[in-house]
Amino acid sequence: MTTTVYHEGSRAVQDRVGVRELADHVGRSIGPGIKPVAATFLEHQPFLVLGAADPATGEVWSSVLAGTPGFVRATGPHQISVRAAPLPTDPLRAALATPGTPVGTIALDPRTRRRMRLNGRMRPAPAGFAVEAERVFSNCPKYLQKRETYEEDPTRRPRSPLVSTELSATQRAFIEAADTFFVTTVHDTGADASHRGGNPGFLRAESPRELTWRDYPGNSMFLTLGNLAADPRAGVLLLDWTTGTTLQLTGEARTYFAANGDRTIRFTLTKAVDTPSALPLRWSAPHYSPANPEPGR
What we know:
The protein is α+β, with helices and mostly antiparallel strands. The protein has a single domain, classed as Electron Transport, Fmn-binding Protein, Chain A (Pnp Oxidase, Chain A). Helix content is 17%, strand content 41%. It has helices at 2-5, 8-17, 20-27, 36-43, 93-96, 169-176, 223-230; strands at 47-53, 60-66, 72-76, 79-82, 102-109, 114-125, 128-139, 150-152, 162-164, 180-187, 190-197, 203-207, 210-214, 233-239, 246-257, 263-275, 281-283. Strand 14 and strand 15 (246-257) form a beta hairpin. The protein is globular. The mean pLDDT is 95.
């Protein structure tokens, strides 16, 4: 299984860090099947994060869809159905309408600090789309902030997005106050959507066009960094857990290795889409993960 789970980019990072054997062990948990416990988990989620490359422009974007729990459902051992559509202004809309597009998804439940990733291929379907699963796996709760409750605001309506090639001062402040973001990366083998979390300040807006974050120790698979080693295109998504605003960024990201073993990712922005009130969900305040390092450490 591990020979198909990892491509040369992930292998190069694993070897550089010295975790190939551990990665092989962890990689045995990845398979194409959706187990009953995973199917049940999906049906209880009010939102789904997903990412892909635009088939026309090549830009990689991350996005999020929300709906009444059950809007994401396993319709077989190797397929999920998503009964929702992206906003007309969502930069990921074209990719989600193109059959066969590689897509990465992540279902995350802040109430239980559980998450599940499913990568596969797009297939249009009535009232939404389906994803034919190629890789399904769960991750540990490390760096996940707990949010105990949420409510849906039926009066909230998405407003017109602000599209730019640089981050405003307000957007940079929003980024530096974030405790969670999502990143999509791609490779010839497919697309992957992943979660990153930490105490506010762990994600830095170094300039109007550059973000940085430290790569905290994880499951040693290095799927994200492995993809970036082969293809630097990336899409970043931030959510305002109170107002429902989304900030979608596309650009390129590269990993820098320090002599002490630290890893820093530098993301260079090419385009930003800021959509006020994009989601109808309002979550309670976070309880930060005890695994979070202090920013700068």
